[in-house]
Design brief:
The radius of gyration is 20 Å and the shape is globular. It is built from 18 helices and no strands. The chain has a single domain, classed as MFS general substrate transporter like domains (Growth Hormone, Chain: A), CATH 1.20.1250. Helix 6 packs antiparallel against helix 7. It is an all-alpha fold.
């Protein structure tokens, strides 16, 4: 487990190096929120299209091998991006297209990785395991922008992105060194039509309340809150006149907040219940988002970013732990791929609508509108559906099925 987590931290550092560096280059050259958002959009949107395929692969083949192959694809595509940057190409559409290929590898491999986790730890430690993944991702968010700022100044953007390619290759090697296989059950891996298998995964989501609530929480988070991270470069430039250094600092602060939030949430949820803690985290998240939108100084904006990181990580940690906890073992890869697909599509929609409002009016108005949207959507789930706290706390005996019916109805 330490090998997987350590290599994952190395890869996450490289990912955030690339995101901040490329985003800052585009923000500087175009001054457009939409073009800046495209680079972040390219990184996450393939999840919506490719994650279901990744889920099928995860439920049919050795999950370790699927994940390692996907990482290798990411390494190759990211190396191509580094070469293109070295040739002087700065067109945001070309850069985004290459990032899409790299992100496709990540989308294909992530369900296999997520499906491996419950086999590595006891059920009672699963939420802590998910939180550890959050620490890795946000540890990369802290170190990546800082390392990226220094590397861009000393080596240039091409070598900086090349570092990310090396990180993917390193993680692929680490995963390949695992001595055990992570095979789905023999019955589930039997030959079956692709669409039939996907329908089976969707039916599993429809009949399990925990999966429904977890996915809905993630959808709201990515529609309204998550996009602020990809738009940090244009926010820093438009609102405060900052460049790569300021964008990197904000991203690092957000990572610190996410680590603090994930740790506190794990402790407080065990003491006060996950449902109550999610309610508190969601309230704090909305307040922090409003402050971020209206921040008069970089210090106030940084404090809001810290709180946004804490609230986002708390809710995401809980949502993913619920889905992994309640997903049927035989369909776990497909359920997680549906979760990832929903996350990717919603993030893409979120980046588009927030960046369009940002270009049309300004980034302050765009983020204030997103703050209002998340408050409204969260209120609908919390106050108009019954039993959500019982589902989050795992008290299925008290869950009224009528309270969750219709949450994800097609």
């Amino acid at each position: 487990m330490l090998l997987v987590w350590g290599s994952g931290l190395f890869s996450d550092v490289g990912t955030w190096v690339q995101l901040i560096v490329v985003g800052s280059l585009v923000a500087k050259d175009t001054g457009s929120a939409l073009y800046t958002g495209l680079t972040a959009l390219a990184l996450f949107t393939p999840q919506g299209l490719c994650a279901p395929i990744g889920g099928l692969l995860a439920d049919r083949y050795d999950r370790r091998r699927v994940f390692a192959a996907a990482l290798s694809l990411q390494a190759v595509a990211t190396a191509v991006l580094a070469v293109v940057l070295a040739m002087g190409v700065r067109n945001p559409l070309i850069l985004s297209a290459i990032i899409v290929f790299s992100a496709t590898g990540g989308a294909l491999g992530q369900p296999a990785y997520s499906a491996m986790l419950p086999d590595l730890v006891p059920p009672e430690e699963l939420m802590a395991m998910v939180a550890l993944g959050i620490y890795s991702w946000n540890g990369g968010r802290i170190l990546g922008p800082l390392i990226g700022t220094v590397m861009v100044a000393t080596l240039g953007p091409a070598w900086t992105v090349g570092f990310n390619a090396i990180s993917f290759a390193g993680m692929a090697v680490a995963v390949s060194l695992l001595r055990r296989a992570f095979m789905p059950s023999a019955a589930d891996a039997m030959s079956e039509g692709m669409f039939a298998r996907m329908r089976e995964g969707w039916r599993a989501v429809r009949r399990v309340a925990g999966c429904q609530y977890g996915i809905v929480m993630i959808m709201i988070l990515n529609l309204c809150v998550g996009p602020f991270m990809g738009l940090i470069p244009i926010y820093a430039r438009e609102v405060f006149g900052g460049g790569t250094g300021m964008a990197g600092t904000f991203s690092a602060v957000q990572g610190v907040g996410a680590i603090i939030g994930g740790l506190l949430f794990t402790i407080l949820a065990a003491r006060h219940g996950r449902g109550h803690t999610v309610f508190v985290a969601a309230t704090g998240l909305v307040l922090a988002y409003g402050v971020y939108a209206l921040a008069p100084t970089t210090v106030v904006a940084g404090a809001a970013v810290l709180c946004l990181g804490a609230g986002s990580a708390s809710i995401f940690t809980s949502a993913m732990a619920i889905v992994q906890r309640d997903a049927p073992a035989g369909q776990r890869g497909r359920v997680l791929s549906i979760t990832q697909a929903a996350m990717g599509f919603c993030y893409g929609i979120g980046v588009l609508w927030i960046s369009i409002v940002g270009d049309w009016v300004n980034m302050r108005v765009a983020f204030l509108a997103a703050c209002i949207a998340v408050a409204v959507l969260a209120s609908v789930v919390m106050f108009r559906t019954r039993g959500w706290r019982d589902v989050l706390d795992g008290d299925h005996a008290r869950v009224d099925s009528a309270g969750v019916s219709g949450l994800l109805r097609a």
